[in-house]
Amino acid sequence: MVNMQTNIKAVKRTAAAMLSAMLLALSMPAVPADAASNGFYVSGTSIKDANGNDFVMRGVNIAHAWYSSYTSTSIKGAADNGANTVRVVVADGKKWSKTSKSDLQNIVNECKKNDLVCILEVHDATGSDNTSDLNAAVNYWIENKSVLQGNEKYVILNIANEWYGSWNGYSWAEGNKSAVKSIRNAGINNMIMVDCAGWGQYPDSIKDYGKSVFNADSKKNTVFSIHMYEYAGGNSSTVKKNIDNALGIGVPVVIGEFGGQHTNGDVDEATIMSYCTQKNVGYLGWSWKGNGSDLSYLDIANDWSGTSLTSWGNTLINGSNGIKKTSKKCSVFTGSSSSSSSSSNSSSSGNASSSSSSSSSSSGDPYVSLFWGQSSAGAWGQPVSVMTTKNGGSFDAANIKKNGYFYVEYTNSNRNQIELILQSWSGGSGWAKVQAYEFGSANGHSYAKFSYNDCVNAFGTSNFSSYLDQIHVGCMKNTTTVYSVCYCYPN
């Protein structure tokens, strides 16, 4: 079994050495979320659980396909070390012994027993450019869909590990669009995860073509994964650029694999963990235990139960931005919100229906509502993101009229650490930040107002109905909880 693991990583090493330089391209637009029933769903760049709460993955990869006798011990060990998620390697039979349906069900049961979200991935297609290998993974999931159905609250489907080894975003997208459609047509409604091209290390495939893959999903419930080793995660600027570019399409991204070093260079694991914490992006370390002798530095634990950690494992688990300090258990296991909650007035994506007047504004001005409820985020996060109607969202940007203002009611220990962000992929400013012109108190909370003129100046145009795609409330420091967002018209 050790030789099998060594071989697959050795192939990855050989291919990675031949990778060409990445080409820059335009970012792709975001699209509105279409929540899957009774399970995880996409809301802007956030992953929401079945209770409508934000879920940020913190966890490890477990190599079930090669070490099946240690899977239960490994899952419990990951949970004992603070993980809220495990990504589990299974096999469809093309390269390794096929993981049976009963085995698959046992993995899911063990994860649920230990309050862990379970990501299942077929590893046989790793590095392949052949659609036949991707289709084999798809057929495996369709064959075993009874394990997935009914477990949408607990299981995320990572179709195929690192399918498409070449750095070719178009072909990667075409294959995955077909795969996503086949999975949905088979009646599988779980959130889908897709690894980027280039053995998981070519994130520009997400930036350039991720929207087309997302749009191919009838549930609009696909997220993307970057595997950050020496190419995608070799230094701080590369890490930040790749995460920002992926999030720029308006869909969640996860760091599905990373380590402290890799075959052809160092990995900036400190920046990966700190920037993921800053941006509310999930991360999953590779891998719990069982890497071959030449890659043993990637082992997180010295023993299957995780009572002794390696140097890499200690960084991942106990570091300042490590799992123990940043992991929050998914609320489907706790029955309460781990980071945010929505009131009965608000939709699961954080958008409220429009209304014409309310006392919510401290001045009593009539308004149109963008959000009503309760949603939280940490420093540099966005507790509320609202899509405009031109993209299928709830807010008509034609309501932004001269002399009006945006009004945000919130709590933050330092009330001036809040900003309004106007986002465009249609011709306006890509990420226009607007500062508040007035702060005050109302309804036991703080409020901030953002003027029409300041919005125009930051966005670069007053034609919001044509160019404004999404609106965010951003917090610069501390944790911010937002209770309402509206556009007000002075009496």
Automatic annotation (TrEMBL):
PANTHER family: ENDO-BETA-1,4-GLUCANASE A, GLYCOSIDE HYDROLASE FAMILY 5 DOMAIN-CONTAINING PROTEIN. One of its GO terms (biological process) is glucan catabolic process. Residues 1-32 form the signal peptide. The keyword Signal applies. One of its GO terms (molecular function) is hydrolase activity, hydrolyzing O-glycosyl compounds. Residues 335-363 are annotated as: Disordered. InterPro entries: CBM65_1 (IPR040877), GH (IPR017853), Glyco_hydro_5 (IPR001547). The keyword Ribonucleoprotein does not apply. Residues 49-291 form the Glycoside hydrolase family domain. Residues 371-485 form the Carbohydrate binding module domain. This is Cellulase (Glycosyl hydrolase family 5). Keywords: Glycosidase, Hydrolase, Signal. Belongs to the glycosyl hydrolase 5 (cellulase A) family.
